[in-house]
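Students often ask why inverse folding is considered easier than folding. One informal answer: many sequences map to the same fold, so there is more than one right answer. In these notes we will look at a single instance of the problem. The structure comes first.
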């Protein structure tokens, strides 16, 4: 079994420490949560334990959250950091992101906000150690991670990205992606172009509520469609009829009409078991595991039972996703394929893989 991650909570108010500790105990990763009411004590604790995430209040006596963060960024550059505060001020938020904080979020006031905090911190725990390719605030993270965290936090902001091909911007209002722009291109085309950049720098800027909306796709639909469009435009991406990687699922997928790409990954962990016609399979596997887990949790909260299947519509494809046995499946079909045929094919692929 994987080791439980360690989380350090820092807040000068004992009642908030107790509340956060109770909230974080509900995380699927079952972290071990330590607490302290002092920034100086937090720095000392970080010296002795390999914490995965630091959650720190902003306004504290003697040493505030930004001062703690400044020290942490120097001494523990790979530590994931969260500023949580009752003072949601745009200037503080900009300063925190400029210093490299992973997440700046208000203190939860209701069950929905507590769940949002849980989702965000679990996403941070799920992030794999990034290589030198990646996007940098102060620490490395993928652009998809940055976008998903802004969506999860229901942020209103502008994400300015400086990539190898120039500058681009993505606008968020209440966690929804409403527009994107690179020189000469806007909307979903611009978003796809920004998402294709592998390295660069980013900064979070104040929201522009007057910005006109040009993107109407859902966040997850937009990310999925963009990832697939990038795959299709990549010369090294496998196309239908090409020889796929070795594996039973790959060979099975090739035999079915209408299948455009497919992925099989180990349930919950997102470790790829097989993939076909996907260049960015790791990104897709991570997105698939997170999406299915969140919808499973939603089904449990509503008392409607276990998740059976998700169907997603993109501009190019109809994507069927499900958990079956110990695996997560995602199979994309040509949109002209009849629904009954898609479902029958998807069922056969799942059964053939597990047999």
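Output (designed amino acids):
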């Amino acid at each position: 079994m994987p080791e439980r991650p360690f989380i350090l909570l820092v807040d000068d108010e004992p009642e908030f420490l107790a509340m956060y500790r109770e909230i974080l105990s509900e995380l699927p990763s079952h972290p071990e949560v330590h607490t302290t009411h002092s920034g100086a004590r937090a720095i000392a604790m970080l010296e002795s334990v390999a914490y995965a995430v630091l959650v720190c209040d902003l306004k504290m006596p003697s040493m505030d959250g930004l001062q703690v963060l400044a020290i942490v960024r120097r001494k523990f550059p790979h530590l994931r950091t969260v500023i949580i505060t009752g003072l949601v001020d745009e200037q503080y938020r900009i300063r925190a992101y400029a210093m490299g904080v992973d997440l700046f979020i208000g203190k939860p006031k209701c069950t929905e906000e507590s769940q949002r905090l849980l989702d965000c911190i679990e996403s941070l725990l799920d992030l794999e150690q990034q290589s030198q390719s990646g996007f940098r605030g102060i620490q490395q993270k993928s652009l998809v991670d940055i976008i998903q965290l802004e969506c999860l936090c229901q942020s209103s902001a502008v994400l300015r990205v400086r990539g190898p091909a120039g500058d681009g911007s993505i606008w968020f209002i209440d966690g929804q992606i409403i527009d994107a722009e690179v020189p000469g291109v806007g909307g979903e085309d611009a978003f796809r172009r920004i998402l294709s950049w592998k390295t660069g720098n980013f900064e979070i800027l104040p929201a522009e509520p007057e910005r006109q909306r040009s993107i109407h796709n859902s966040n997850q639909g937009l990310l999925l469609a963009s990832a697939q469009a990038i795959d299709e435009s990549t010369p090294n991406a496998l196309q239908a009829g090409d020889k796929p990687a070795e594996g039973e699922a790959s060979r099975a997928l090739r035999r079915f009409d209408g299948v455009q790409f497919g992925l099989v990954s180990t349930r919950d962990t997102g470790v790829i078991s097989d993939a076909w016609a996907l260049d960015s399979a790791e990104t897709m596997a991570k997105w698939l595991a997170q999406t299915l887990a969140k919808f499973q949790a939603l089904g449990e909260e509503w008392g409607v039972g276990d998740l059976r299947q998700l169907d997603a519509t993109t501009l190019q494809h109809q994507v069927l996703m499900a958990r079956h046995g110990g695996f997560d499946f995602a199979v994309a079909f040509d949109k002209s394929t009849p629904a009954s045929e898609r479902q029958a094919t998807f069922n056969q692929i799942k059964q053939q893989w597990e047999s």
